[in-house]
Amino acid sequence: MWIANGWKEYQVIDCSCGEKLETWGKYTLVRPDPQVIWNTPKNEKGWKRMNGHYHRSKSGGGEWEFFDLPQEWTIHYPLAIGKDLTFRLKPFSFKHTGVFPEQAVNWDWFSKLISDAKRDNPDREISVLNLFAYTGGATIASAAAGANVTHVDAAKGMVAWARENAAASGLAEAPIRWLVDDCVKFVEREIRRGNRYDAIIMDPPSYGRGPKGEIWKIEENVYPLIQLCSQLLSDSPLFFLVNSYTTGLQPAVLTYMMSTVLARFKGTVTASEIGLPVQSNGLVLPCGASGRWSAK
């Protein structure tokens, strides 16, 4: 398992009864997590002294209950390459805060690939395409490492939030294209335009609807999308990253998909669960899986 253990201002304190107890900077939150199917004693004091609690409804969705929590605050992540990222957190619908902290293990991985490639060839321009880019964690990690980034997400509000994170991280003037667009349609247009990228990152949802009601199911649509995206890779690509929060897409499935699609490139495919360390017991909370292809 790839473990995101580089955080200084975020921690999973405990997890039990379908929920996880976390600290985000100086604030403590309790949020639901479908992976937490065990019922262990809630001895940590944060279970009774939280700043925010997201209550899931039995009929779907849920709502926040706040206890002395600001509308917005920031936390920082120190990339392994020596650059700091800043994230503006805002609890919003469906339990999210604006950051998936487990993805930090991937930020460290590909930011080092970019940084090393730039060190070996300072004149090389490295172009990264980030699809389903959300609030821009992967975008600003790539930009901090020296890449030119194209950030694509269908939600206008998420793209605006990502720009705020870039500015907070000192990357307001970085070479980032911010695009509000349907990711699949954008990739199809880029193929017709003949544009190419040295690296591709995708973090597709398990389920979603397009602007015209198109249904996205990751089990049905992710493989065709990987095939499409492979047509956008440059002659000397650097890496390809696919993230999944769907339990059906296990690491072996990600490995198989990426190995078959990217077979024409010389490189290595690896895949693993990703997780977050739990402070109270030393165990690791699983948080999905990632598949990685790299030229090295």
- What value does the average pLDDT take? 94
Number of H- or I-type helical stretches? 6
Largest sheet: 8 strands, mixed
Number of strands: 17
Radius of gyration: 19 Å
3D structure, described in words:
By secondary structure, the chain is α/β, with parallel strands linked by helices. The chain is 25% helix and 32% strand. The protein contains six helices and 17 strands. The strands form four sheets. Strands 1-16-17-15-12-9-10-11 form an eight-stranded mixed sheet, sandwiched between helices. A hairpin with a 5-residue loop joins β5 and β6. α1 runs parallel beside α2. The radius of gyration is 19 Å and the shape is globular. The two termini are 20 Å apart.
Key terms:
296 residues; alpha/beta; eight-stranded mixed sheet; five-stranded mixed sheet; 32% strand
